[in-house]
Design brief:
The complex is a heterodimer of chains A (about 120) and B (about 110).
Chain A lengths: L2 E4 L3 E3 L5 E8 L7 E7 L5 E8 L5 E3 L8 E5 L4 E6 L8 E8 L6 E4 L3 E5 L2
Parallel strand pairs in A: 2-11
Antiparallel strand pairs in A: 1-3, 3-8, 4-5, 4-9, 5-6, 7-8, 9-10, 9-11
Chain B lengths: L8 E4 L5 E6 L11 E6 L6 E4 L13 E6 L2 E6 L8 E9 L3 E4 L3 E5 L1
Parallel strand pairs in B: 1-9
Antiparallel strand pairs in B: 2-6, 3-4, 3-7, 5-6, 7-8, 7-9
The chains are: A mainly beta (about 120), B mainly beta (about 110).
């Protein structure tokens, strides 16, 4: 069974750094792309970027380029989303999802990680 | 890269059909046949219901169908059921191998 399991909820202060994770199981992780999607409270989905686990090729949304870093460690089937200096506006639910191997859509999703940034 | 345009809300009675539109540009929806649709119930992760404009993944009800004309894609839900009440998002592949989501549509089953 394909599963993407994300790390737990985080509460941070502005200016702090953070790295959240997304661990895949039940499939060959290195053959797939993993994407990250932001959902601010009460708002819609926003595409942040996507990384290929095989060679770490990463593409960012212009809206998020320079604001976050997407990475992966294929040896442990895990993708990451990190911030070097959080802002209150980073408060949101963050989802990882797998891009289908034969298409462009996202066929499996993680359960989401809630990040709260507050002083 | 602006979000695709969806109606904020639609509603219908059980058994009826509804259509949700998703309007983009010639750089995304109009250029590629890679529009997907996602259903999201409150507090849950999104679920893929349509891929490549009109294809249903295995296990998705045939009451869901998709289409595209020009820069606008559409999701049709026929035979509305109470369980269909959710938020729906379109997503398009775009130039530079990026993606863009629609703003989302809240479906209310009356």
């Amino acid at each position: 069974e394909v599963q993407l399991v994300q790390s737990g909820a985080e509460v941070k202060k502005p200016g702090e750094s953070l790295k959240i994770s997304c661990k895949g199981s039940g499939y060959s992780f290195t053959n797939y792309w993993i994407t990250w999607v932001r959902q601010m409270p009460g708002k819609g989905l926003e595409w942040m970027g996507i990384t290929y686990l095989g060679d770490s090729d990463t593409i960012y949304s212009p809206s998020f380029q320079g604001q976050v870093t997407i990475s992966a460690d294929k040896s442990i089937n895990t993708a990451y989303l990190q911030w070097s200096s959080l802002k209150a506006s980073d408060t949101a639910m963050y989802y990882c999802a797998r891009r289908a191997i034969d298409g462009k859509e996202f066929d499996y999703w993680g359960q989401g990680t809630l990040v709260t940034v507050s002083s | 890269q602006s979000a695709l345009t969806q109606p904020a809300s639609v509603s219908g009675s059980p058994g009826q059909s509804i259509i949700i539109s998703c309007t983009g540009t010639s750089s995304d929806v109009g250029r590629y046949n890679y529009v997907s649709w996602y259903q999201q119930h409150p507090g849950k992760a999104p679920k893929l219901i349509i891929r490549d404009v009109s294809n249903r993944p295995s296990g998705v009800s045939n009451r869901f169908s998709g289409s595209k004309s020009g820069n606008t894609a559409s999701l049709t839900i026929s035979g509305l059921q109470a369980e269909d009440e959710a938020d729906y998002y379109c997503c398009s592949y775009a130039s530079g191998s990026t993606r863009v989501f629609g703003g989302g549509t809240k479906l209310t089953v009356l």
